[in-house]
Amino acid sequence: MSTVQITAADVNKLRQQTGAGMMDCKKALVEANGDFEAAVDLLRKKGQKVSAARSGNATSEGLVSIAVSADGTNGKLVALACETEPVSKVEDFRNLAQAVLAAAVANNPATAEELSAITLEDGRTVAETITELTGKIGEKIVIQEYANVSGEKIVSYIHSNGKMGVLVVFEGANGADITDAGKDVAMQIAAMNPIAVDKDGVDPATIEREIEIAKDVIRQEGKPEEMVEKIAAGKLNKFYKDSTLLNQEFVKDSSVDVRKFLDNTSKGLTVSAFKRVQLGA
């Protein structure tokens, strides 16, 4: 057992040198009898150096996990990403994904940064646990996306490959059972990838870009200048119909849009927000 006194300054120095967590640095210095080089080697073996070395690697594979509260008013989504598909199927990776989701449910963090800082049962943070598995597996692992949404009724959907997940916030259900309709809308979002719930949710810069593109195309077609504005407005409406959820044709019945489908399901039912996450997109 080491008799070398490890000071806070020593720990901080190693932390600055390696980027590893404070507790990991202290343990490594104790185990290495205060030898900095040996402590760095120990941290490397635990994955700290591997994590840094692979920090620029692309993470296009992984697993999307979702939990919706028992009363249906809150939903949490965690997308844990890795570099290759085989790793996404490894038991340790899948167990980690579930542990991170469970930490989110238990602690209700607002952001991915807050989620990463949560301490798990073994005393390590989520971030430290991810780093350790990075070293064990040899691939970059990151929390690619995290969502925490609340509302009157949350419905979720995970695609069969586990790489895409959707959370939808419904309002105006008024006690009606919207389970089936909610799933249909969540699957619509997965398939059609709308950019906003409705027209007023579209970024003004996007609207301006669509108008300018439409005008250029119209002019290239030789249309009179006095018609350009009117035709561009029509093209913008087509953009809204294609790209905003409530205005899209309902995939399962093209005779109605999603807004009308929801109103037919339960008078006043609508979507107030959604989150769609796709790994590798």
From TrEMBL:
Top-level division of the source organism's lineage: Bacteria
The Translation elongation factor EFTs/EF1B dimerisation domain, residue ranges: 76-280
Subcellular location field: Cytoplasm
Cellular component aspect of the GO annotation: cytoplasm
Annotated keywords: Cytoplasm, Elongation factor, Protein biosynthesis
Primary localisation category: cytoplasm
One protein family per Pfam: EF_TS
InterPro entries the UniProt entry points to: EF-Ts_dimer_sf, Transl_elong_EFTs/EF1B, Transl_elong_EFTs/EF1B_dimer, Transl_elong_Ts_CS, UBA-like_sf
GO molecular function: translation elongation factor activity
NCBIfam families per UniProt: tsf
Function: Associates with the EF-Tu.GDP complex and induces the exchange of GDP to GTP. It remains bound to the aminoacyl-tRNA.EF-Tu.GTP complex up to the GTP hydrolysis stage on the ribosome.
Family the entry assigns: Belongs to the EF-Ts family.
Name by which UniProt lists this protein: Elongation factor Ts
Gene for this chain: tsf
